[in-house]
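Provenance

Sequences were taken from public entries as deposited. Structures were produced by running a predictor on each sequence independently, with no templates supplied. The record for Glycosyltransferase involved in cell wall biosynthesis from Isoptericola halotolerans is shown for reference.
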Amino acid sequence: MSRYVHVLTPGDHYSPRTGSAVPTVVHGLNAATASPPAVVVARGTYADRYDDAEAIEYTPAPGPGRWERRLDAVRAPLGLPRAARRTWAAALAGQDSWEPATVVLHNAPQAVALVHAQHQPVLYAHNDLLRTYTRREAGRALGEVSAIVCVSDHLAERTTARLPHSLRERVHVVRNGVDTDLFRPGPGFPDRVQELRIVFVGRTIPDKGPAVLLDAVETLDRDDVHVTVVGSAGFSATDPLTPYERRLRATAGRLGGRATVRPFVPRTEVPGLLASADVVVVPSVWPDPCPLTVLEGMAAGAALVASDVGGIPETVADAGTLVAPGDTAALASALGHLADDPVALATARRKARSHAEARDWSVVASELAAVLEPARRTP
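Predicted structure for Glycosyltransferase involved in cell wall biosynthesis:
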């Protein structure tokens, strides 16, 4: 088995200080991988890195500007690479000094053609990366890829539709996992103490739907329900509030003591926040491919209520409650049922924890190895 070298998005941090999904997934996989992996990370990113992989640093190149990105619409039909390839070239500049490796390129279709012949290039898709690609351009960019790993069936279907037929058999699904030792139920699990404690953790942007959750709690209008929303538009607690975040705080203000809104917290604080919840809500209104908070909330012993959209239903399976995205009344009804029925709540919490235990990162790492080993090219 060749060594895994994970290449992060240029500028992303391999650190518990960030809440970004890609480094969290890479950290989960690396911690469960037997052979010592490596992570290619830009010099100047957070120095307090996860210690489960060798950090291969490089000097980043400037990212494409707005006009360069607009010119991609002209480059693509001419068969020219997109402007983003320059930044990926910087990340891969030192690859000739690496031992032959499986180079796992996260969200980087433009980087596949830059991987040298001694390595195995793998595209790991966490999002819908090819939505602006024609099949012809996708074929040119990904022709040498050993495998394309998608984090959900939903994402795999969207990705496959953009590929030429010659590449479609290289698409595989490896859903995200969770650290079931780090994310664990809190004291008193699975019984509710007094008020129903509802928690949202994530980016406070419209796509993630925290306003839908606050509106649902306002609709419920119950003194025995408390909601906590934790997050910022980006990954910094000190950024100025966006208009959307100001709206969230206005709604929370109307709820008085029944709502708390907090800015972004470091990754190390998330397990405790989720362990304090009776219910974790993932109210996305966009086709979220495989949000980590679903399994993290379940592993922490919370009942899970989430939007029936994107890859969320397959992540939840039958271990949580699904509601239509953006449907405030349906979300309020689901939360009201759990507030009214302590037996149903306790059952839902046990079922959620059991479901999460089956997706520990050790399971996911084994699934990834099973996909990538047969996909290796013959030298």
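The first helix runs from residue 21 to 31.
The mean pLDDT is 95.
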